[in-house]
Amino acid sequence: MVNINPMEALLWILLPGFVAVASGVLSWFVMQSRMDVALANQREALAETRGHLEAEKAVMKASFQNAIRAAEETARRQAFDSFLGEITVEQRHYTRENRLLMQNRRSLILQERIFFRNLPLSNWIEHEIVLQDGMDVDRLVQDMTVFDKSVVNIEDLRLPKKALA
């Protein structure tokens, strides 16, 4: 007959349970480390994607700011050009004769003023030019204008004719 020690029987009963628990704990640690690696890989991919998105967002923001700035500058330039297009110069001239004792002195009086639409922006600016015999008055008027913009001459204006009732 086989004589079995009770301690030995207890060992054969508990040893497989202990090995099972130890292998379960070991497999849990292995799986936990695999999960940590997978999580780290996912976080890395997420950080890379976020980096690309942030870079793309910064580029888009800079692009939009440049486009907005360019549109504002274009609008400002067009408004200024429109404003300058509505500024006109009105000009009138006449000749004056001064008689001093034995001397006749003819002078050309040139008057100019600036208008915005129909509103005068300045008072009449007057120039007096001494005329000598044989001088071309129209050429002298063109040469002596203060403003370089195209000049509206009062003589050239066509006033609407009113019908008599």
Description of the structure:
The chain folds into two domains: 1-85; 87-156. The mean pLDDT is 84. The chain is rod-shaped, with a radius of gyration of 50 Å. With 165 residues, the protein is of the alpha+beta class. Strands 1, 2, 3, 4 and 5 form a five-stranded mixed sheet that branches. It is built from two helices and five strands; from the N terminus they run αββββαβ. The protein starts with 5 loop residues before the first helix and ends in a 12-residue tail after the last strand.
Helix content: 40-55%
Element-by-element helix/strand order: HEEEEHE
Q: What is the β-strand count?
A: 5
User: Which regions contain 5 or more consecutive residues with pLDDT less than 50?
Assistant: none
Compute the number of helices: 2
SS strand fraction: 15-25%
Radius of gyration: 50 Å
Q: Could you tell me the mean pLDDT?
A: 84
Summarize the biggest pleated sheet.
5 strands, mixed
User: What is the first-to-last residue Cα distance?
Assistant: 154 Å
Shape: rod-shaped
Number of domains: 2
Concise synopsis of the structure shown:
The chain has 165 residues and is an alpha+beta fold. Helices cover 53% and strands 24% of the residues.
